């Protein structure tokens, strides 16, 4: 059995990548497409997006807020809205796994 790799996000700590992925998947399920993410959840997403392999591009000039939007095959995902009015989706798995 493989060794668990912990994920540290500011003040939040997850014992493994699996635990972190499950936490953020549950967070995502609490919202409907078009919902703006609550500030308490946005604080965690702000830390999570910094782990994305293209974080600099995803964050751009800065984060204004996060929303939930539709994705492929009837699923949903988080979107980052930047202070310049642009936005795009991002993968939770890419952030947690840093690939």
Query: Largest beta sheet: what is the strand line-up?
Result: 3-4-5
The count of β-strands is 5
Number of spatially distinct domains: 1
How helical, in percent, are the residues?
Answer: 25-40%
| Weakly predicted, low-confidence segments | none
Under the CATH scheme, which class?
Answer: Alpha Beta
Distance between the termini: 22 Å
Radius of gyration, whole Å? 13 Å
Any idea what the shape is?
Answer: globular
Give the number of helices: 4
What is the correct CATH architecture?
Answer: Roll
Describe this structure in words.
The protein has 99 residues and is of the alpha+beta class. The chain has one domain: Nuclear Transport Factor 2, Chain: A. The protein has four helices and five strands. The protein has a three-stranded antiparallel β-sheet. Strand 3 and strand 4 (76-82) form a beta hairpin. The longest helix is centred in the N-terminal third of the chain and has 13 residues, at 17-29. It is globular, with a radius of gyration of 13 Å. The protein starts with 6 loop residues before the first strand and ends with a helix. The mean pLDDT is 92.
Write the layout of secondary structure elements.
Blueprint: E1 7-9, E2 12-14, H1 17-29, H2 39-49, H3 55-59, E3 63-70, E4 76-82, E5 87-90, H4 92-97
Antiparallel strand pairs: 1-2, 3-4, 4-5
Compose a concise summary of this entry.
The protein has 99 residues and is α+β, with helices and mostly antiparallel strands.
């Amino acid at each position: 059995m493989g060794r668990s790799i912990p994920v540290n996000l500011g003040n939040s700590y997850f014992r493994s990548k699996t635990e972190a992925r499950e936490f953020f998947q549950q967070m995502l399920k609490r919202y409907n497409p078009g919902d703006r993410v609550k500030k308490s959840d946005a604080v965690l997403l702000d830390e999570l997006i910094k782990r994305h392999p293209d974080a600099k591009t995803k964050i751009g000039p800065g984060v204004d807020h996060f929303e939930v939007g539709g994705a492929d095959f009837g699923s949903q995902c988080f979107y980052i809205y930047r202070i310049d009015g642009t936005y795009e989706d991002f993968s939770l798995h890419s952030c947690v796994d840093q690939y």
